[in-house]
Design a protein that fits this description.
Elements (H helix, E strand, L loop, with lengths): L12 E8 L9 E8 L4 E5 L6 H8 L7 E6 L2 E2 L5 H6 L1 E4 L11 H5 L1 H5 L4 H14 L4 H4 L9 H13 L5 E5 L7 H18 L2 E5 L3 H7 L2 E6 L3 E6 L1 H6 L4 H7 L3 H4 L16 E3 L4 H10 L6 E3 L5 E3 L3 H5 L14 E3 L4 H10 L4 E5 L5 E6 H9 L7 H10 L16
Parallel strand pairs: 3-8, 3-9, 6-7, 7-8, 11-12, 14-15
Antiparallel strand pairs: 1-2, 1-4, 4-5, 9-10, 12-13, 15-16
């Protein structure tokens, strides 16, 4: 969402009558657009396939040349500037990061600074700074090749590379669509945290309306031909769809989509009993029972969660195990309640651990709290939404889940 930094580093973007007509086509790919994007905000372009949202994004950095109209960035008319020079001043992120496969992470991140003539020391310092910003240890990942990293890690490198030359504008074309749903949620949360620190102007193309409402300070809904059907905040669009097209595009899930406006940070968290590897199990169990906890969260030296065993599991061994649970359900404060529910059900657990921007444990969110909020939407919900909620909160939807954390 909009950067919380006191210094906005982004630039305004203004499209005046920007139009794209391809040769041989009777209808324009993008009708004449008039759009004003405020410096430091995230604007999400969303709409059905073939509606011109990606074409519009690419016209901003002139990967696609507009047929007519003017483009202003920071008040400067860039329509006739050298396109290569223009693109060096705009960050660009695509699916899967778009990394050079035979270059190391360090070399990928430093690509534009090298073109701009930065010295090696400055590039190395900037690369280290950005890898830390996107949550990757420079010592661990700097020398790796993209093939030796997960899709989510590659996408983080793609964001770091796009920010390398400190551009005022960051364009993102379906950046998280190629990763699994849980990784996607974490990357979205990371982008929100990064934006709080860098305060850029970000334009993101997505086919997912829920992602648009989560990330966008404002959302621009396109219809075929690049026509704007509505441009407003997520709350405005959900509460007052501009026309039948918007209502149909949002779909019958609009009421439930209101959950995308509620963040984990808005909900009370429950405290947890924590332990570290090699702690005496007897002492941990005694402390957990005194705190009336059925579960224990094992954390590392930075309070990052490693596992979420039951008290009985802890009591079955003399010391706390070093096991790391790869399916541990974690969400960030910026996660939506939709995200949290998805994570809980995917992991078949009755809650999710909530972490801060550095991955440190803050507490846990029980599924019961989320369900109570969902049920509060039922008065206005459509029948198919009611059916989903009834399933999600039934034994079928919560197989293997209890409301006391962990897996039953």
């Amino acid at each position: 969402m909009t950067a919380e930094s006191t210094d906005v580093a982004g630039a305004t973007i203004r499209l005046e009558g920007v139009r794209k007509q391809y040769k041989g086509q009777t209808e324009p790919a993008v009708a004449a657009l008039d759009v004003d994007i405020v410096a430091g905000e995230i604007v999400a372009f969303v709409g059905p396939s073939g509606c011109g949202k990606t074409t519009t994004l690419k016209m901003i950095n002139r990967l696609v040349e507009p047929t007519s109209g003017r483009i202003y960035i920071g008040g400067r008319d860039v329509t006739d500037e050298n396109p290569d020079t223009l693109r060096q001043s705009i960050g660009y992120v695509i699916q899967s990061g778009g990394l050079f496969p035979h270059w190391s992470v360090e070399r990928n991140v430093g690509a534009i600074p090298r073109v701009l003539g930065w010295d090696k020391k400055k590039i190395a310092e900037r690369t280290e700074e950005l890898l830390q910003l996107v949550g990757l240890d420079p010592q661990e990942f700097g020398k790796r090749l993209p093939k030796d990293m997960s899709g989510g890690q590659q996408q983080r490198v793609g964001v770091a590379r796009a920010l390398a030359a400190d551009p005022p504008v960051l364009l993102m074309d379906e950046p998280f669509s190629a990763v699994d749903p849980i990784t996607r949620v974490r990357l979205q949360d990371s982008l929100i945290e990064i934006q709080k620190k860098v305060a850029k102007t970000i334009v993101i193309v997505t086919h997912d309306f829920e992602e648009a409402t989560k990330l966008g300070d404002r959302v621009l809904i396109f219809s075929k031909g690049g026509r704007i059907e509505q441009f407003g905040t997520p709350a405005e669009i959900l509460a007052n769809p501009a026309n039948d097209f918007v209502r149909e595009f949002i779909g019958s899930g609009a009421t439930l989509a209101q959950l995308s406006l509620t963040r984990v940070k808005d909900v009370d968290l429950d405290p947890v009993t924590t332990a570290t590897v090699n702690d005496s199990s007897e002492g941990v169990v005694e402390r957990a029972r005194a705190e009336r906890s059925s579960w224990v969260v094992v954390v590392d030296e930075k309070r990052r969660p490693r596992a979420w065993p039951s008290v009985d599991e802890v009591a079955s061994v003399p010391i706390v195990s070093a096991y790391i649970d790869p399916r541990l359900p974690t969400v960030a404060l910026s996660s939506t309640l939709n995200d949290a529910l998805d994570v809980m059900l995917a992991a078949s657990q009755g809650g999710a651990l909530v972490t801060d921007a550095d991955g440190g444990l803050l507490g846990w969110l029980r599924i019961g709290r989320v369900i109570d909020i969902i049920r509060g939407q039922l008065d206005e919900a459509q029948p198919d939404e009611v059916s989903y909620i009834e399933y999600a909160t039934s034994e079928g939807g919560q197989a293997g889940v209890d409301d006391d954390g962990g897996a039953s």
